[in-house]
Structure prediction request, 251 residues.
Amino acid sequence: MLTKRIIPCLDIKNGRTVKGINFVNLRDAGDPVELAKFYAENGADELVFLDISATEERRKTLIDLVLHVAEQVNIPFTVGGGISSVEDVDILLKSGADKVSINSAAVKNPQLINKLAAKFGNQCIVVAIDAKQINGQWKVHLVGGKVSTELNLFEWAKEVETRGAGEILFTSMDHDGTKNGFANKALAKLSTELTIPIIASGGAGTMSHFVDTFIQGKADAALAASVFHFKEIEINDLKKELRNKNIAIRL
Prediction:
């Protein structure tokens, strides 16, 4: 049985880690490199860095961050934000990232997924999907949740898998930052309909929420931010609780 993964997420803005609620009302959560090192030393299985306001001018900032993180951590880490070309991915992977996450660029140019998977391998390509429920339908959103589309979450996820994505990072915008639990019904549907791993994101508030997303949501990994950044949950304690609930986890 594959072990489940616990993944702290560091949203980066102007070189700092930030966290908000429902994608807004951001507050500072610390230096991303220091946080990365702490997590790597204290039980995290992987890390995700998302430059939430990335622009072409800021590309160098993200590369510098990747270089510094790679020097400090010995666990896999994914980088996302403003990535829109084979060249972007090439330089980030060469700078030390293990995977890249694409979101808006994949929707605008789905063929990009095929190109990246063919050049770098499926295992490097994570497609992030931000979605919220509108009139009972899960709709995909872009640009950090600011732009709505008519894309259906489940149809887009299937296309993404077909095109070569190695993993899907699904964030429920309705649950993000609320600490009321993950979107387990949607996660379970994704996990049932797809064969690639699904990372749950949005809503972690208690240890039981992680238990629920692995059991009810059938998620392969659970990603969280503020509960880790502000020391509300210690990763090693969380992992012991998961093991006590008979969930396969690396201690």
